[in-house]
Design goal:
The complex is a heterodimer of chains A (294) and B (169).
Chain A lengths: L3 E4 L3 H5 L1 H13 L4 E3 L9 H7 L1 H16 L4 E4 L2 H16 L1 H11 L12 E3 H9 L1 H7 L7 E5 L2 H4 L15 H7 L4 E2 L15 H4 L1 H18 L3 E4 L2 H18 L7 E3 H8 L17 H6 L3
Parallel strand pairs in A: 1-2, 1-3, 3-4, 5-6, 5-7, 7-8
Helix pairs in contact in A: 2-14, 3-4, 4-5, 4-6, 7-10, 12-13
Chain B lengths: L4 H7 L12 H5 L10 H9 L18 H5 L6 H14 L5 H13 L7 H9 L13 H13 L2 H7 L10
The chains are: A alpha/beta (294), B mainly alpha (169).
Bound molecules: iron/sulfur cluster (2 copies).
The site of one iron/sulfur cluster has 15 residues of chain B, from helix 4 and helix 5.
Chain lengths: 294, 169
Amino acid sequence: MKPVSLFLGCIIPNRYPGIEKATKLVLDGLGIDWTDLAGASCCPAPGVFRSFDKVTWLTLAARNIVLSEQMNRDVLTICNGCFGSLTDANHELKHDQGLARQVNKHLAEVDMKYNGSVEVRHIIEFLSKEIGPGTIKETIKHQLDLKVALHYGCHLIKPSKERDLGTVENPVFFDELVEALGAQSIDYEDKMACCGAGGGVRSALLDTSLEMAEAKLQHIAEAGVDCIVNACPFCHLQLDFGQVEIKDKFGHEYNIPVLHYSQLLAIAMGHSPEEVGVDLNFITDAQFIDRLRG
Amino acid sequence: MTKEPVKLLDDEGLTFLTCMQCGTCTGSCPSGRYTSLNTRRIVLSARRNKDVYHDKDLWMCTTCYQCQERCPRGINIVDGILALRTESVHMGLMLPDHRKVAGLVIEKGHAVPINDTNRDKRKKLGMDELPETVHKYPDALDQVKKLLIATGFVQLVKDTEGKEKEGGQ
Ligand code: SF4
Ligand code: SF4
């Protein structure tokens, strides 16, 4: 397994730092060779930047990738948006020399050069492929007796032409990681549906975005679960803070706790819910938090 | 200066011309259930060289890629939507909220920068107040700023100011 650098993006360090902390605890606990990707910026946000100007999108993404190339480490992301942006940019630059030349012309201004020598990973596919649910099951300190609604999020698995993760209609690799912790992944209607945040929709058309989020929350509520588990802080924000916005705007209350998989795994590895910031979410439930303790 | 949609998509290797108008894309679209976005119609308009650049529906797509994954003709629909959006932005059309996000990256290197509430959350968790990103390294932020000027992005965002009315958005 190639050593990795941890790419934080924007939402995790600046809105849900508990996910950052949980990820670092998990990487240490599993003995993974990692380091901070110091000086990284926004990935940049795929929905907007990729829509505005392709070369700008590629240039900022390439700068982040080059920082990791300089350490000869793969880039490890914990966010579907960062993963989508960086992995798709890396793919385009590796396969289109004309684009790579344009980007390198700009990077030369800051004495950098993109080489295409590293890969971009996402924590979920990384854990699934490099560690595996079996090892995770043996590593954890206590089982979590929870019913979980899993949300893969779109850009972890799509576009599939640039990922090697199997079916996009019925994937199981994330479910297996959750079940390795003793939890039960409950099926619900339209499980693979988008949370509605991406593509610049949340930032420009909030009500529309929240209607899509509410459709998910309704289906999840019908399935009768203890919490939602996701792989992305933007989905996390949409499903956690989104519940507050939905209550304010539409008057509907759900109160479903939301965790990033890093947090769930850190807790199963023996860390307290508070240590990884579960109580710093917008939707908090003291009874649920108590159930997470070992 | 503006390219016609068919030419634009052709140049990107993303032709919409093989679309058979089956509607699988529209039927798969989570946004279209709540908005006027009709993916099949966008594809049709683009391949008929209609002016899709002013179509506000372009911005209702969450880029979930469901349509693209399911299209029986293997059309790279979302890549095409992103190319159409880009042309639209280069015509000077950018939603005001998106310009704000762009401005944050230009100024701070983050689309979602740190604030006091989250500095406190970080401290409470025993972490450094600032993450190991451009927030902590001014030289790194300077690089980002230089690059955004070099690619013409700062100017592009400036050029879109005050153009919303013209774009009917
Ligand atoms: S799914 Fe593909 S072929 Fe069918 S209408 Fe949409 S773009 Fe055309
Ligand atoms: S990618 Fe956009 S157009 Fe396609 S299904 Fe998703 S929201 Fe609809």
